[in-house]
Specification:
This protein has two domains: 123 residues, Rossmann fold (3-Layer(aba) Sandwich), CATH 3.40.50; 77 residues, Winged helix-like DNA-binding domain superfamily/Winged helix DNA-binding domain (Arc Repressor Mutant, subunit A, Orthogonal Bundle), CATH 1.10.10.10. The protein contains eleven helices and five strands; from the N terminus they run E-H-E-H-E-H-E-H-E-H-H-H-H-H-H-H. Helix 3 links the parallel strand 3 and strand 4.
Length: 215
């Protein structure tokens, strides 16, 4: 089962998240916190697979919470809750260590899908935010192919860097979405990362200048 903790100070939305998670038998709620301070006291001792965190908590923000706990919670992935997908706070949360986000107002199914996507190595976010992340990461050169990526894996990685979804990549490369997902899993394994954002941290100017890069 996928263990999930929630950090949300709005009672109504916190209850909505709890109900959405409890609807899926693959999920188990580990802890529910109403503030960043409460989460700080207990997250270290009861780490979940995924933590759903409100970006704009009242006293201490979800971004500051992640900055403090992420270094000690290597196996916990953070999924942010936000009202506006183009908010710079979303970008700052990803820079701090979050791996994706959901919009407040999402349906129970959308919330569950985002959790599963994140757990399986995805990074739920809009193309707008993905492009901002990529523009930041392009300034961090490192030889990705020293990890032994295949030509097809380099192609998939370069398309991921443009913010394309699995289905869009499968259409571009004329392969199935499942094949794209398998390539992504291999990429994450070879780059020694857990998800898309961490993989793109290792995507560099070498790949951009290589003949493998897709224009």
């Amino acid at each position: 089962m996928i263990s999930i903790s929630i950090v949300e100070d709005h009672d109504q939305y916190r209850n909505l998240l709890v109900k959405a998670i409890e609807m899926n038998k693959l999920f188990k709620i580990k802890e529910v916190y109403s503030s960043a301070e409460e989460a700080l006291d207990r997250l270290y001792y009861n780490a979940p697979d995924i933590a759903l965190v409100d970006i704009k908590l009242k006293t201490q923000s979800g971004i500051e919470l992640i900055k403090q706990v992420k270094p000690q919670l290597a196996f916990t992935q953070f999924l942010m809750c936000t009202s506006y997908q183009n908010d710079d706070n979303v970008f700052n949360a990803l820079k701090a260590g979050a791996s994706g986000y959901i919009l407040k107002g999402s349906t129970a199914t959308e919330i569950q899908d985002a959790i599963l996507d994140l757990y399986n190595g995805g990074a739920p976010m809009s193309p707008y935010i993905a492009r901002k992340v990529i523009s930041l990461l392009h300034g961090q050169p490192r030889n990705v192919n020293s990890f032994g990526l295949s030509e097809r894996e380099l192609e998939v990685l370069s398309l991921l860097s443009k913010g394309l979804l699995y289905k869009e990549i499968s259409d571009r490369l004329s392969i199935s979405p499942n094949t794209v997902k398998n390539h992504c899993k291999n990429i994450y394994k070879r780059l020694h990362v857990q998800n898309k954002i961490e993989a793109l941290n290792k995507f560099n100017t070498y790949s951009m200048k290589s003949h493998h890069f897709i224009a």
